[in-house]
Amino acid sequence: MTTGAPSGICLRGLSWTPLGRRTAVLDGIDLDIAPGERVLVTGPSGGGKSTLLRALAGVLGAVEDGELAGTVHVGGARPQGGDSGLLLQDPVAGVVASTAGRDVAFGLENRAIPRGELWRRVDESLAAVGLDIGRRHPSLALSGGQSQRLGLAGVIAPPAGLLLLDEPTSMLDDDAAAQVRAAVADVIGGRRTTLVVVDHRIDGWLPMVDRLVVLVGGRIVADGPASAVLRDHAADLLSAGVWVPGAADPPAADIPPDLCSPWFAHRPGEDLLLAEGLTVEYRLRSGLRVSRTPPSAAVAIRGVDLRVVAGEVHTLRGASGAGKSTLLAAVAGLRRPASGRVRALPPLARGRAPEPAGWSSREVAERVGWVPQRPGLTVAGITCRASVLATGHVLARDIAGRADALLARLGIAHLAGRHPHSLSGGEARRLALATAVVHGPDLLVLDEPTVGQDRATWAVVAGIARAAAAAGTAVVAATHDASLAVLADARTTLDAGRVVA
Amino acid sequence: MLARCGPLSLLGASFVLMVGGLGAPGPAGLALASGVLLVAVPLTVGPGRFPWARLVPGLLAIASVAWSNWLLASPRSWEAAGFAGLRIGFFVLPGVVFASFVDPAVLGDHLGQRLRLPARPVLAAVAALQRFERFGADWEDLGRARRVRGLGPSRSPVSALRAGAAQAMGLLVGALRDATDSAVAMEARGFSRPARTGTPRTWAVAAPWTRADTALLVGCLAATTIALAGTPVLAALAGR
User: Fold this and answer.
1) For FRET with A61, which of A49, A188, A283, A315 sits at 20 to 30 Å CA-CA?
2) Domain presence at residue B81
3) Are the C-beta atoms of A7 and A162 separated by less than 8 Å?
4) Quick check: A372 contacting B, CB < 8 Å?
5) Which of these, A483, A477, A473, lies nearest to A312 by C-alpha position?
6) What integer pLDDT is reported at residue A12 of this predicted model?
7) Is residue B228 in a domain?
């Protein structure tokens, strides 16, 4: 895989202000990185980390409009797209071709790698990231964790002097994350490649990085050997929200339960919904082209029993692709079971049919709040505030006060007037949480709610889950985050679509 | 057999039939050629289910062409109306069937390698076609999100229309946003690199011209020949 000369980096006064924004996302960055150096960049959510990577990859300003100042040099020249390997934060957005094989091959084709060597590298890269799905697997029929690994395979396949990774393990369980880090370590072994990796969870990367850079509000506030930065700036790092290794997890923030209380009160401990022998299939879409083999129905979950209880936080865990998201969607009435059933009990059904999949849109919205894995999905409106208020408006529930208070607690009140799609990854996920909880659903269904969060925002997200439960909401969260699972009242582990614990 | 055909023969065959349909001098030859296609095309579809419902818009188009030709012609003639409908049907229906076997990624391979079209516009077009293919899945995702937010349709048809329109708008806005994301992703993987460095890109998958391609093209050339030459030949035979 990646070979060639490692690239050095020189940034002088780099500033970036996206079109229509008054504050700079990057504000006068000076940074020198030696060829072959391995740098970890961390800092609070919305601090400019992803933007820095895009600048280094030479794609900032190529597509988005904005004001770029200062100079960027990578390997002594202005960076151009394709010089470096960039893994984007949202893996689905990074898909460039229809099948896994073609997706990984894309960068190699542009590098003019001959066909024989090309496919050898494709197979090696897929194996290195632990993805055993085959070349012809549709690149969009993947779980969040699988598409993250597919993206990484595509990034490490071509030769590059610089590898830029944006939270490459955020959607992976611990084992898969360790495997991905090993794949990265293998690529950068022998200092053949410079590495800049962005992550909130830094402990896994510390053994392989030389240097830690902390970015707060678009500025570098700490920079140096990782051990020295951690020693000298521990307090600053903690207050900047960095997950300092060894520091205890922050306690869940103390959120007033009335900000997240269900509209209809529930007695804590009462059963709201049961999944019984639940099997859900999904069809691999083949697109417009007619294929000779009919689209295969893949079983996502099989024979799953789940008890959803008011006042409890229930976490779903398991490797990526185990069926967590599908189970959440079935519980929320967003996917029909192939067999078995989801049964809402009287306190939740309130006179409606017991199957959530048969409810009207309004009946679902009254009862369920959902944070999808791609948080932009539930956006409805052209400002964050309008989007958060939309469901309350439909249900005629007056929630404006709650909305403003939640946005403030989640640290996105200052973004209330901005377009929801202009938010950073971590901010968008917090907006999706506010959106899901604000109108007081009985059941809160969260798909990876803590991805992309720093310590401070993590504490608020966890605090909202706890406060909602304390107020009588049933909370079900699919998560790879062990810190969140610790706060749960009940835990279910899935493996290949079945409950194993 | 069609599943073994490359995109160029599939599109080329459709074009050949278009020449035949529009150029046919009279109804006799065209009817004969249409009969041949009516038997031959379903046979080439081969095993596996084909979504015949895709032909419905084509059939509607034929019916409306025939009907308006009947209605507006003076004197009204069933023969002329049928001929007009047949002209359209001759290439539209097989064209829909053939196009169903075109894979956008394979089309890109063939345009780039066989026709040697410049890679950048070819890849951009492939990305756009693939974007189009994702519409089905995106529509479902968006439907779920709107349902859980209380913005999905209620049982009344008016609300269904309104919710459908809003969802379609959401789909388009999402497509534009995703296009930006795709552009960043493709650029980051060196999409512009071949143009910048002058080293042409390679293609991961070969674009072979197969015997099936030749057979399809020859078959459609034959059908077009019947459509063009059939009428005078039949007339000459009848007159002898």
Assistant:
1) A188
2) yes
3) yes
4) yes
5) A473
6) 96
7) yes
Q: Is residue B193 domain-resident?
A: no
Same domain, B94 and B212: yes
Nearest Cβ partner for A289 among B100, B184, B196? B100
* Averaged pLDDT, groups of 10, chain A, 501 residues long: 75 92 90 95 90 92 83 91 88 88 95 95 92 86 86 92 92 85 86 90 92 93 93 88 88 94 94 95 66 59 95 93 91 92 95 93 95 91 94 95 96 93 90 97 96 93 97 96 94 93 85
Task: State how many domains chain B has.
Answer: 2
- Report in angstroms the alpha-carbon separations of A370 from A387, A391, A443: 14, 12, 9
Distance from CA of B64 to the nearest CA of A (A): 26
The answer to whether residue B197 sits within a structural domain is no
B68 and B161 in a single domain? The answer is: no
Q: In sequence order, what DSSP letters do the residues of A172-239 get, joined into one string?
A: S-HHHHHHHHHHHHHHHGGG-SEEEEE-SB-TTTGGG-SEEEEEETTEEEEEEEHHHHHHHSHHHHHH
Query: Does the beta-carbon distance from A82 to B192 stay under 8 Å?
Result: yes
pTM, two decimals, is 0.85
Which residues from chain A sit within 8 angstroms of residue B147, using beta carbons?
A: 333-334, 361, 364-365
Task: Please check whether residues B214 and B96 belong to one and the same domain.
Answer: yes
Domain of B40, in residue numbers = 2-104+208-239
User: What is the least distance, in Å, from the CA of A250 to any CA of chain B?
Assistant: 31
* Binary contact (A97, B155; C-beta < 8 A): no
pLDDT of residue A1: 46
B203: contact with A, CB 8 A cutoff: yes
Clarify whether residues B19 and B131 are in a common domain: no
| pLDDT tens for each residue of B19-72 | 999 998 888 899 999 999 999 998 888 776 788 888 999 999 999 999 998 888
